[in-house]
Amino acid sequence: xxxxxxxxxxxxxxxxxxxxxxxxxxxxxxxxxxxxxxxxxxxxxxxxxxxxxxxxxxxxxxxxxxxxxxxxxxxxxxxxxxxxxxxxxxxxxxxxxxxxxxxxxxxxxxxxxxxxxxxxxxxxxxxxxxxxxxxxxxxxxxxxxxxxxxxxxxxxx
Length: 157
Prior knowledge:
By secondary structure, the chain is mainly β. 6% of the residues lie in helices and 41% in strands. Strand 6 and strand 7 (115-130) form a beta hairpin.
């Protein structure tokens, strides 16, 4: 459950758990074999779709809004290239026909590193992996990789 306080939390302390999938803890959100340490998480969002409906005998000339399906946004995870191909291998196994949905948990931490909010993505699966942009010009840029996830629902606690 989110912890209330007067000042908003910083967006710089968080943990990402990608679960372990079919061979381990059945995607229960435990640490599994995926190494965390992500620098960015984006795309946490949900939208409810509405249909317009109006009876022919309505006294007001205005359509009502009736909620129906909802959509969730794709999630993007970014991390520095750490010498592990775990994210790429997850996507590759799905590409090769092995369904591997996982419950992904993103936990926001306060300044003392206590959990204050949890976002759980149900049945998340990899959609796209992007490797680093490499440039020989030198400099202090970090080689980054991205993993885009699709999922079937989000819980916020």
